[in-house]
UniProtKB/TrEMBL annotation:
Domain of life: Bacteria
Residue numbers spanned by region Disordered: 48-71
Protein name: Uncharacterized protein
Organism annotation: Afipia broomeae ATCC 49717
Taxonomic classification: Bacteria, Pseudomonadati, Pseudomonadota, Alphaproteobacteria, Hyphomicrobiales
Length: 71
């Protein structure tokens, strides 16, 4: 989806959401906004964040929390 088209859709949904008190309608519009943003976002290569790969084995901690070799 083109960015300009996505912004147009988002503006319409935001305006409609701000003019209602119906929580179901607002939730539906927020869901639609998320879909539009996901479609408009550039595709990226999947990656594994460092925090998912676990701690570095060279940074092992002793039972008192000090790094091994720092005493």
């Amino acid at each position: 989806m083109e960015s300009a088209q996505a912004f147009k859709h988002l503006r319409t949904l935001i305006k409609a959401a701000s003019e209602t008190d119906d929580t179901t309608l607002i939730h539906t519009q927020l869901t639609m906004m998320t879909v539009i943003i996901d479609k408009a976002a550039p595709r990226q290569k999947p990656y594994v964040p460092l925090w998912l790969s676990g701690p570095d084995p060279r940074e092992q901690r002793s039972s008192d929390g000090a790094a091994v070799g720092e005493r």
